[in-house]
Every structure is written in structure tokens, then in C-alpha cells.
Amino acid sequence: MVKSSNASVFERRLCCTVLGETRYNKDKILQGQGVDEPLSATGFKQADAAGLFLSNVKFTHVFSSDLLRAKQTAATIIGKNKFCKDLEIKYDARLRERKYGVAEGRPLTDLKAMAKAAGEQCPAFTPSGGETLDEVRERAKDFFEFLCQLAVEVEQKEREMHGAASRSSGTSEEQSVFPWTNHCSQPGLSSDNGGASKVLDANILVVSHGAYMRNWIGYFVSDLKCTLPANLTKSQLSSVSPNTGVSHFIIKLQNGSRLEPEIRCVCLNQDSHLVDVGAECVAQKVF
After folding, report:
1. How many Cβ atoms sit within 10 Å of the Cβ of residue 163?
2. Can you tell me the distance from the alpha carbon of 239 to that of 218, in angstroms, rounded to the nearest whole number?
3. How far is CA 24 from the centre of its chain?
């Protein structure tokens, strides 16, 4: 593809978190899309902890699955934020959990038994009425392409309104602070400008579900060649995030260009904020 002469490179930080625990998580019962359980008491504690963990991050856009457990998680996280407590949360059905069809509302062991009877294994097995992994990935791809288009449109509007010079200005109190500890290099530093601190244009928060996020990250890695932290293991990459696990990506886009975005994963499924909540708050991973 040919790059436009008017193309300008800009970055967005994408922060993704999995929702808090429900009683069905704890009991290892599949929820999918058909079972819309609220957060449990533990789930709200996890969401509170994630909110405090991200309280210094200035988000400009927040998107959530339209299922109740995700809505409650997103609202709790934003309610703890120092910068954007009143920011509108936009709900999107493309962020829903994978649909498990006839297996929804049934124990995870039932899904595994169905897969075994069909001569298949989880998570590749698709129960009757459920979504295939490819269908989930297509939803994730569609939503990410929407995010990229939104970012380009916002970038263009900012340039028209303020110009490049005013866009790059900002006070230190407005700079986001990302509290990452695992898989981290130097958050907030740019190798393109000699290591100087760089204020990025926007921070986008997405709240979704475990199986969905695993598929989305798979799309990042296999299709978009996302750069991963050097110390990230294959098992960590393929695992479903713990409840309210947080992942952080830097997305590099080009305004006026049709080139694919460049993606760098800074942290994956970060859960250090759950330490003070208690070990019981790290829910079992399900498909």
C-alpha cells in the first residue's frame, strides 16, 4: 500500500480488562451471552481494585460489552478514576462473551464432555447454537477496526481545531500514569525521541470477557503481528485472563495511510492489583 504524503504517525494506548467475578464464575458454570449474571461481592471488590489500579490513567474513551457483568465492572472502574468519573461508557454488542449455545448455564465439565463426545477439545469445540472461534475473532477484528477508524477521525479533528503544536502541549498533571509491574519495559517512554517522556494522545479502556479477550489478543498476534514482551511465556499468552486482569497495548497509527496499525503489548493479564483483595478474588479460568 502507498502511504499518503499527508500521513502523520500517532499513538493510542489501549487498556483492556476482563470483568469481575460472578457467582457462576466461582461455580465454574458457563455464562456466554444467554446468562446475564451480575457481579458477586467478590466481583465488585475486584472491580474496585482495578479501578484504584487505573485511577491515574486519563481515559478519553471507554467501551464495554453490553452484558450486565461487564457494565458493572466498567462503571466501577471509571467511578474510581481521578480524571474521568463522568466520562460516558459506550456499550457495544461486539464486545460480548463468546456464545456457548446449549452449554450456557451448564457446568464447564458438561462442555468438556460434549467436546469429548464429538472427538474434539476445548476451546476449539463449538456446542450447538454457539459461536466458532473464527466468528468470535471476526467480531473482535470488526471492533478493533472501528477503534482504529475512531482514533484517526479524532486525530484529524484535533489537528483541525488546535494544530499539531497545541496538541503536543500538556501539563504534567494531565499525563497518564500506567502502574504496570509485569512484562514491563519502560511505560511512558518513547525510543523514538531518545527516551524522553511522551504524553500520548489518548487512552482507550475496553471492558470485555475472558474467552473474547483471548481471541482478540490472538488476532493481534497472528494477524497484526503484535510485538510481545520478551519474558511472556506461551502459556501466559494462551491463558484466559483472571477476573479484572488488565492488558496494555500501544497502537501506532498513520493518519492518511491505509497501512495496518503497529501494536506493542506492554503487559498482558496484569493482576497485581488483586493481591490485597485476597487470593479468593482470582477466579478460576474457564473457556
Report:
1. 10
2. 11
3. 22
Q: How far is Cα 246 from Cα 257, in angstroms, rounded to an integer? A: 30
Per-residue H/E/C for the chain: CCCCCCCEEEEEEEEEEECCCCHHHHCCECCCCCCCCCCCHHHHHHHHHHHHHCCCCCCCEEEECCCHHHHHHHHHHHHCCCCCCCCCEEECHHHCCCCEHHHCCCEHHHHHHHHHHCCCCCCCCCCCCECCHHHHHHHHHHHHHHHHHHHHHHHHHHHHHHHHHHHHCCCHHHCCCCCCCCCCCCCCECHHHCCCECCCCCEEEEEECHHHHHHHHHHHHHCCCCECCCCCCHHHHHCCCCCCCEEEEEEEEEECCCCCCEEEEEEEEECHHHCCCCHHHCCCCCC
Q: Cell for 65? A: 460489552
Task: Examine residue 38 and say whether the peptide bond preceding it is cis (omega within 30 degrees of 0).
Answer: no
Any idea which residue has 469445540 for its cell? 125
Q: Are 30 and 105 in contact (CB under 8 A)?
A: yes
In tens, the pLDDT along 74-87 reads 999 999 999 988 89
Q: What is the pLDDT of residues 40-59, one digit of tens each?
A: 999 999 999 999 999 999 99
Place of cell 469481575: 20
Q: How far apart are CA 75 and CA 72, in angstroms?
A: 5
In one-letter notation, the amino acid at residue 54 is L
| Residue 283 pLDDT exceeds 70 | no
Identify residue 179 by its one-letter amino acid code. P
Which residue do the cell numbers 483483595 mark? 277
In the β-sheet with 8-18, what is the strand arrangement from edge to edge? 89-91, 61-64, 203-208, 8-18, 246-255, 262-270
Which class for 83: exposed (0-12), middle (13-18), buried (19 or more C-beta within 10 A)? middle
